[in-house]
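Checklist before submission:
- one chain only
- standard amino acids only
- sequence pasted in full

Submission:
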Amino acid sequence: MNVLALIRNEDELPSVLDYASKVTTSGDELYVMNIIQVPAEVPTKQTGEVLDFCSEFDLSPFLAEKRNNEDWMRSRFDSEIPLQREVVVGHRLTILNDRIKRWNVDLILTSSELSTEFKDLIRKTKAERIKSKLQIPILNLKCDRRKQAIEHIAIVSDFQEENGHDLALVKHIAGIHQAQITLFSFSKEADQEHVILSLMDRFIEKHGLEGAQKQVIFTADKETSVQQLLMEYSIQLMVTLDLERQGFKRLFKGDLESDLLNHMLVPILAL
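Returned file contents:
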């Protein structure tokens, strides 16, 4: 598995590297990047980096930041994980798209602060933009998890038959830690339990998740119930798959998976 870890600043480097060590093992490749974003009007190469000979814009502040970041990227690394590191100035999404193809990246590991519904109305978070634009699995951290092992992984989904996601990443991480996997789904109607359990059984068989547990939660408010899972269950990693809002909530509030990616403290893996 090839993992690309995005580092925003020096302070978060230890916690992101620690989590990278939790989701990789011998034979995996880890790439660590710090991207210094420039305004959209700054010309770049096809790979997203700024042009070396650009004279229309004063790039000196960005290049000075790059030199500073290269210093702490070199000095702060005490990881035993084999890795490659890079500091780049340019357009983030174009650079990431190039590196994803160049390095055959399977997962992007990033971090962000907790967002709010009001902030979401103003702009998308970095994690949400990467997920929607580049269509790659993203694992988003909100806080330092260095003291927490991954013992229980929750897969939260509607488990519809058209679900075509590859669960290799989830199985890989669970295998590293011998973690328990539990499938969670939500329903307003108690008489739908047998239908949902049947969908879960097919999901388990399709993806080779033998030993996974199943839990159907009856609720009138899926969104609130998903967020309350952490109060009732010890979950160290939540995987979100095809979670849909219904009716007006879907029209006005958009994608539930994006909200969970932005608003929940637990690490979220969005496939």
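Reviewer check: The chain has two domains: 2-111, 152-270.
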